[in-house]
Design a protein that fits this description.
The complex is a heterodimer of chains A (153) and B (385). Chain A is mainly β. Chain A has one domain. Chain A contains 1 helix and 8 strands, in the order αββββββββ. Chain A is globular, with a radius of gyration of 21 Å. By secondary structure, chain B is α/β, with parallel strands linked by helices. Chain B has 12 helices and 11 strands. In chain B, the strands form 2 sheets. Chain B has a 9-stranded mixed sheet with strand order 3-2-4-7-1-8-11-10-9. In chain B, strands 5-6 form a two-stranded antiparallel sheet. In chain B, a hairpin with a 2-residue loop joins β5 and β6. Classes of the chains: A mainly beta (153), B alpha/beta (385). At the A-B interface, α1 of A face α1 of B.
């Protein structure tokens, strides 16, 4: 053996690890996803009256269970913060440059993470957006293809 | 001098094969809310949360403690995750108790879970490494040769495992939370069930369960107000050893022996079979009852099977074992160790209902994991230390 092991002697091989899983989203998020199929966005009220969207099973402030009051929010909302993706990769949601944004929908007290299809020059915190729905909805977050700025060009 | 620590709240889910009606968050909250209610407390009364579960790859949720933080009311509080394979439910309770004993907190919520219906426990334990083969044995395949060794060494009658399975499944019929309840199970049914991993038969094997368990632990100052008296933690111990090493004793692991010696010494126990009223021990395959009876010092090496055979471990024996039905009747893996610790505490609190051992005042909770390499134990009593 030479002082340094030759690179060709060091073996490596592909290691693909794929397992099928299943996941129940539970009763609260099931309401949220089912509403999306109807092109509606719902939040859930905490006992203190705050509206969480996306809904959660517990109030993050107190740990208490949320109420069974689901309220329709949006569809419009406000960008709370964002980051721009100038060169999207294959598995990202849009093929053209886009933004990931935290969007507080009208009537909600928390923000939803989604995609905004907009010119970066016109993106700003506080900008109003509205959802662009897919032609066919199936009851998942991708039923909203993305959000777009409310003020047209 | 460590602070005294007590179990003041106990909660668990009704363990079953598939809980599609709840998310993982919903599952752990069921157990946690029952433990809080048992303690007469609310989420805001808790100072810290300690979560345990088996490997992340089982459900495929990376760092589930982060996803579950809000659901466990942990915002603004310390949140710890514990992992020691199948023993994790026990070691999670030990870590939670240590936080109280160290004087850091007054009340700690500790939770453990597994949602096996959403898991891939078999294959997640059998990752094929490049250029090597995968064993593809599952836990039963790993433990079957150890059981064979025990049978050969001890000369135990071949039906010992069947008797353990019958006893534990019979106990489960008295436990409303148990997954498997089979009132008609007979010796012949167990004996004629398919051989899964020779010599382990189908009915000598734990089920795959969805379930969670939660405990509220408190300092002596805060141990007031619950519906049931506290279970006082007199001793905890943990030990681990590598999966394999030269000269390793796998049937009667040294880590388990030393863990038991430590927990007895701390609790002032010199004759465990006489001084302990009942024991809830981690028996996922029936033959592990006699094996662990020896490892835990309840019986001399080679004669643990006699306790099973003579009925000493039955509910009316001198050392009832696995009153709840044990892992053989419910196995939400991450929670299984904590369920053993919880059952021990329920017994000394007198809240075990139809599976209550009359007059139980001192109980052992035991869990093991990995390739018989991780051990955690506690001794709880109705009397304070």
């Amino acid at each position: 053996m030479s002082q340094q092991t030759q690179a060709a002697d060091i073996l490596s091989a592909p290691h693909v690890l794929e397992y099928p899983y299943r996941r129940s989203v539970g009763p609260v998020l099931s309401r949220f996803f089912t509403a999306l199929r109807e092109r509606k966005i719902v939040g859930v009220e905490t006992s203190a009256g705050r509206v969480l969207c996306p809904p959660a099973e517990a109030d993050p402030e107190t740990g208490a269970a949320v109420s069974d009051r689901f309220v329709e929010v949006g569809p419009g909302g406000v960008i709370e913060s964002w980051t721009f993706v100038a060169k999207p990769r294959d598995k990202q949601p849009l093929a053209r440059p886009f933004a990931y944004a935290l969007i507080r929908l009208d009537g909600a007290d928390t923000a939803l993470l989604h995609v905004v299809d907009a010119d970066p020059a016109r993106l700003r915190t506080g900008a109003r957006v509205r959802p662009r729905w897919r032609a066919e909805t199936v009851g998942e977050i991708g039923d909203i293809e993305c959000f777009e700025l409310e003020t047209s060009r | 001098m460590a602070e005294r620590c007590a179990v003041i709240g106990i909660g668990q889910t009704h363990h079953t094969a598939r809980r599609d009606d709840v998310s993982i968050a919903g599952l752990v909250r069921e157990a946690a809310e029952r433990a809080l209610a048992d303690a007469g407390l609310d989420w805001g009364d808790i100072d810290a949360v300690v979560l345990g579960k088996a490997p992340d790859m089982f459900e495929g949720v990376m760092m589930p403690e982060l996803y579950l933080a809000d659901a466990l009311g942990a915002a603004g509080k310390p949140l710890l995750r514990v992992h020691t394979a199948g023993s994790v439910g026990g070691s999670t309770a030990v870590v939670a108790a240590n936080l109280i004993q160290a004087g850091l907190h007054e009340r700690v919520l500790t939770v453990a879970f597994e949602k096996q219906s959403e898991s891939n426990a078999m294959w997640a334990l059998t990752v094929k490494t490049p250029l090597q083969s995968a064993v593809v044995a599952g836990a039963g395949g790993y433990f079957a040769p150890l059981i064979r060794s025990y049978m050969q060494r001890s000369g135990a009658p071949e039906d010992t495992g069947i008797r353990v399975a019958l006893k534990d499944r019979s106990n489960a019929n008295k436990n409303p939370y148990a997954h498997l309840r089979e009132p008609d199970l007979s010796f012949e049914t167990v004996a004629n069930s398919p051989m899964l991993w020779d010599p382990i038969r189908f009915h000598e094997t734990c089920p795959s369960s969805d379930g969670a368990c939660a405990l509220v632990l408190s300092s002596e100052r805060a141990a007031t107000g619950g519906a049931h008296p506290p279970a006082w933690i007199h001793a905890t111990a943990m030990r681990s050893e590598p999966t394999q090493f030269a000269g390793q004793e796998k049937v009667n692991p040294r880590a388990g022996q030393e863990c038991a010696q430590e927990v007895y010494a701390k609790a002032g126990i010199t004759d465990p079979r006489r001084e302990i009223d009942c024991a809830e021990i981690y028996v996922p395959f029936s033959w592990f009852e006699p094996m662990w009876l020896e490892n835990l010092g309840f019986a001399p090496v080679g004669s643990g099977w006699k306790m099973t055979y003579e009925g000493a471990t039955a509910p009316d024996g001198d050392l009832p074992v696995n009153m709840s039905g044990g892992v053989l009747s419910s196995n939400p893996i991450g929670a299984s160790g904590m369920l053993r610790f919880a059952e021990a505490a329920m017994q000394v609190r007198g809240q075990a209902g139809a599976h209550q051992v009359d007059g139980a005042r001192t109980a052992l909770g035991h869990a093991y994991g990995g390739g018989s390499q991780f051990f955690s134990m506690w001794i709880v009593r109705s009397e304070r230390p």
